[in-house]
Amino acid sequence: MKTTEYAAEIVKELHRSVERIAEEESETLADIILQSNKVFVAGAGRSGLMGRAFAMRLMHTGKDAYVVGETVTPGIDKGDVLIIGSGSGETRSLIPMAQKAKSLAASVVVVTIAPESTIGSLADALVKLPGSPKNQAGSSHSTIQPMASLFEQTLLVFYDAVILRLMDKRGLESGRMYGRHANLE
């Protein structure tokens, strides 16, 4: 297969994945973000990179958004939300974060393939994304892509769709958001 044929197949896989996301779960996430004081985003590896992009866009919408682990990230409190992106829902470094946020009366939302996971069971709300875990044995969602690439790509597209929904709910336009874009680059 040629590179462009692979790319076309990836786009088809993403389309099938996005069609399987529950609108009610997506809307719940948007509402939680709108009602929160501060938004904290966490994830490990490539899922964490998708979360960083999401936190940046949240900041562009005017939300106080932070990436867990950065030196400028404040403490989480009641009225805040921790959003975790984790395909397996079992990422060892993320479980204590969810537990700590819960102990401080913050909300926890997980975006995952596995709602029945440890982090899923700790979450106040969750969004189930289709995708194949890193170990595809027994997976019902086939992909030509390696490891958890389909989940991570779907996660980024989903996060961007949530941003568009937040913009719609708040009457924001892209031009207005550009005023919050970094200007020391």
Automatic annotation (TrEMBL):
The SIS domain, residue ranges: 29-172
UniProt keyword annotation of Cytoplasm present: no
High-level lineage: Bacteria, Bacillati, Bacillota, Bacilli, Bacillales
Keyword DNA damage: no
NCBIfam families, per database record: RuMP_HxlB
Domain of life: Bacteria
A UniProt-annotated Pfam family: SIS
One GO MF term: isomerase activity
An annotated GO BP: carbohydrate derivative metabolic process
Recorded family membership: Belongs to the SIS family. PHI subfamily.
PROSITE patterns (alphabetical): SIS (PS51464)
Protein name per Swiss-Prot or TrEMBL: 6-phospho-3-hexuloisomerase
Transmembrane segments: none
Keyword annotations from UniProtKB, A to Z: Isomerase
Organism: Paenibacillus antri
